[in-house]
Structures are given as structure tokens and as C-alpha cells.
């Protein structure tokens, strides 16, 4: 199943929604944060005890390829690795270019009713 995603421009609202998801039983392992700025991604994820799309979610070949990729290419690859199509990854990466942050939940059956 494809992950559920929601876009945010307000970090506080995103963090409130992550707390609500956890309160409703969504496991930490199913919650991911992604932005164009690695520091922002890490800061938000740390504040809400959520995940970032890292080594364990990616194919080794893609991890090595990302070392030499532009930021946009790396983000699109991460989005594809977590379950989005190439077209969806491109669209979400454009949103990230605009400064948005993505909340991605890999347990869509439960998250869709909450977001």
C-alpha cells in the first residue's frame, strides 16, 4: 500500500499532528519527516521522535548513488524507496522546493482517517 502523506508549512502544526497520530496508536516506525533541508528534517524528527528516510529504508545502490546526486535527485529517490511512484516523487519534491515539509505515514490504513 502507498504511504499517506501530508504537506506542511508550519512545523508546530506538523508536530501536533505527529503527537495526535501517536496518541491514536500509530507506531513511531511508521512516521517519517522529510524536507529539503536536512537540518530541518532532523530537528523536527528529533523533536517528535519520528523517522527520517535513511539507510535502512533505501537500497544500498541508491544510497551510494545519492552520495553523488543533487539534493532534488536524492529526495526523489528517497520518496520512491518509501513507496511513491516516480511521478509522485517528482511532484512532492517540487513541494519540498517550495519549503514544505512532508509527514509520511507508512501505515496508511489507520493514518488516512486521522490526517
What does this protein look like?
This protein has 115 residues and is an alpha+beta fold. It contains six helices and three strands. Helix 4 packs across helix 5 (86-97). The longest helix is centred in the first third of the chain and has 13 residues, at 11-23. The model is unreliable at 55-69 (pLDDT under 50).
Keywords:
alpha+beta; globular; 115 residues; 6 helices; three-stranded antiparallel sheet
The gist of it:
This protein is of the alpha+beta class.
Question: What secondary-structure arrangement, pairings included, does this model have?
Answer:
Elements: E1 4-8, H1 11-23, E2 31-34, H2 38-48, H3 60-66, H4 71-82, H5 86-97, E3 101-105, H6 108-111
Antiparallel strand pairs: 1-3, 2-3
Helix pairs in contact: 4-5
Query: Which range best describes the helical content: under 10%, 10-25%, 25-40%, 40-55%, 55-70% or over 70%?
Result: 40-55%
Taking all Cα atoms into account, the compactness measure Rg is: 13 Å
Derived from helix and strand composition plus strand pairing, the structural class reads alpha+beta
Strand content: 5-15%
Oligomer: single chain
Number of strands: 3
Largest sheet: 3 strands, antiparallel
How do the helices and strands follow one another from N- to C-terminus? EHEHHHHEH
The separation of the N and C termini measures: 16 Å
Amino acid at each position: 500500500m502507498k504511504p499517506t502523506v501530508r504537506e506542511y508549512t508550519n512545523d508546530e502544526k506538523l508536530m501536533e499532528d505527529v503527537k495526535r497520530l501517536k496518541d491514536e496508536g500509530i507506531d513511531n516506525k511508521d512516521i517519517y519527516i522529510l524536507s529539503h533541508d536536512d537540518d530541518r528534517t532532523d530537528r523536527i524528527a528529533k523533536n517528535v521522535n519520528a523517522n527520517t528516510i535513511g539507510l535502512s529504508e533505501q537500497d544500498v545502490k541508491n544510497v551510494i548513488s545519492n552520495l553523488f546526486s543533487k539534493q532534488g535527485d536524492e529526495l526523489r529517490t528517497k520518496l520512491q524507496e518509501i513507496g511513491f511512484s516516480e511521478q509522485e516523487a517528482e511532484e512532492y519534491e517540487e513541494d519540498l522546493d517550495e519549503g514544505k515539509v512532508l509527514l509520511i505515514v507508512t501505515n496508511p490504513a489507520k493514518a488516512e482517517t486521522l490526517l
